[in-house]
From TrEMBL:
This is Alcohol dehydrogenase class IV. GO terms for molecular function: alcohol dehydrogenase (NAD+) activity; metal ion binding. The keyword Oxidoreductase applies. Pfam families: ADH_Fe_C (PF25137), Fe-ADH (PF00465). It comes from Halanaerobium saccharolyticum. Gene3D superfamilies: 3.40.50.1970, Dehydroquinate synthase-like - alpha domain. Keywords: Oxidoreductase. PROSITE patterns: ADH_IRON_1 (PS00913), ADH_IRON_2 (PS00060). Residues 12-175 form the Alcohol dehydrogenase iron-type/glycerol dehydrogenase GldA domain. The keyword Secreted does not apply. The lineage of its organism: Bacteria, Bacillati, Bacillota, Clostridia, Halanaerobiales. Residues 186-377 form the Fe-containing alcohol dehydrogenase-like C-terminal domain.
């Protein structure tokens, strides 16, 4: 049986943040990251809107990039004290992901982190509170997905938590919020969207329900990402990219991904290369590797876009966005060629075992993944 699960309500376009004014309830916690949402005034706006709705709010801030189990437990305890009937996450993927698991533990205080690692093992939620997600980056689509990525600092492992229970009840996709992202974050997270959409479209688990969403997202990224990066104040471009992220999220949350993500997860674990950037660099090489296995699907994308060569167009787009063509060219990266060769075998084996590899159109051997890493590292 195939299922398609997305949030029941998505409010989008400019000023959709003001939807908060319409909420019914008594208490809300607002979960957010470091300082960006406070600094740009969105947190205060949210508190005011909730006040208008007669809802008392409490802020849980300080969620770090790649949030930890410790942060999640801290949030859980604050929620248990305050007893909210709404959990509202506002920020990047990290804040949204952390809030999802804080919420699960608030609903089930005796639950341990170890007990939710297995796919689908989160028990029924929504007995105490409902969940709203307000993304401030246009990339991870955590506002849509059944995923949360939490890091166990002691074991040094990043765990993808998967459950339909953590698909938010309501997503607010307001383009004014990501409009404050600096251009390099816009570029990198935007290429994460491209990778989500392409991988979901050619995934072996793609369906008639996910395909149109992925296809439209690919087109929106090609058409609007360069403008969103060149002129951050262009709200039309910001809105199109914010929508593209959410559409791609609907697709990949239901169709899963492929080895761009497997490879990016593992190189991101070894070196400090951000997720979107790793995806951007890897995508052309993986399109090459997958092309024959999913030829009809790739041709469908090319036909829809009116182009001849998706791989070449993705490379052009990277160049336009000032994204390097290979890892070696990134001068600020904290590793050398020797470091790369040293971890190559381990990284390739781990990438093979990543869950995203299961739905890749071409079934890779570990040697194939090594080859792709090498090409993406040294350039072809
Ligand atoms: P983060 O949430 O990690 O945020 C990255 C940085 O961007 C932070 O310093 C943050 O600052 C800043 N920032 C966020 N929004 C704005 C804004 N509007 N203006 C200015 N600065 C801003 O980034 P991502 O959204 O890329 O999320 C990455 C996380 O998501 C990773 O942990 C990854 O593993 C996970 N992920 C989750 C998925 C899912 O389906 N749930 C899918 C893929 C990845 P500040 O902290 O001050 O707000
Ligand atoms: Mn991604």
């Amino acid at each position: 049986m195939n299922s398609f699960v997305i949030p029941p309500e998505i409010h989008h376009s400019q000023d959709s943040l003001s939807y908060l004014e319409n909420l019914e309830g008594e208490k809300a916690v607002l979960v957010t990251g470091g300082s960006s949402m406070k600094r740009f005034g969105f947190l205060d706006q949210a508190v005011e809107l909730l006040e208008k709705a007669g809802i008392e709010s409490k802020i849980i801030d300080g969620v770090e990039p790649n949030p930890s189990v410790k942060t999640v437990n801290k949030g859980k305890n604050l929620m248990l004290d305050f007893e909210p009937d709404w959990v509202i996450a506002i920020g990047g993927g990290s804040a949204l992901d952390a809030a999802k698991i804080m919420w699960a533990f608030y609903e089930h205080p005796d639950l341990e982190f170890e007990e939710i690692i297995e796919v689908g093992s989160i028990p029924e939620l929504r007995n105490k509170a409902k969940f709203i997600a307000i993304p401030s980056t246009s990339g991870t689509a955590s506002e849509i997905t059944a995923f949360s990525v939490i890091t166990d600092l002691e074991k040094k492992i990043k765990y993808p938590i998967v459950s339909p229970e953590i698909v938010p009840d309501l997503a607010i996709v307001d383009p004014q919020i990501p409009a404050t992202m600096p251009s390099h974050i816009t570029a990198n997270t935007g290429m994460d969207v491209m990778a989500h959409a392409v991988e979901a479209f050619v995934s072996t688990a793609a369906t008639d329900y996910t395909d149109p969403l992925a296809l439209k997202a690919i087109k929106l990224v090609f058409d609007y990402l360069p403008e969103a990066v060149a002129d951050g104040d262009n709200l039309e471009a910001r809105e199109k990219m914010h929508n593209a992220s959410t559409l791609a999220g609907m697709a990949f949350s239901n169709a899963s991904l492929g080895i761009v993500h497997s490879l990016a997860h593992k190189i991101g674990g070894e070196f400090h290369v951000t997720h979107g950037l790793a995806n951007a660099i890897l995508l052309p090489y993986v399109i090459d590797f997958n092309y024959q296995a999913a030829e009809n699907k790739f041709k469908e994308i090319e036909e829809y876009l009116g182009i001849n060569d998706l791989k070449a167009e993705v490379k052009n787009l990277n160049q336009k966005l000032d994204i390097k063509a290979n890892f070696k060219e990134i001068d600020w990266l904290d590793y050398t060629e020797e470091d790369f060769e040293e971890v190559l075998a381990r990284m390739s084996q781990n990438a093979l075992e990543d869950p995203c590899t299961l739905t890749n159109p071409e079934e890779p051997e570990v040697e194939d993944l090594k080859e792709i890493y090498k090409k993406a590292y040294y350039g072809e």
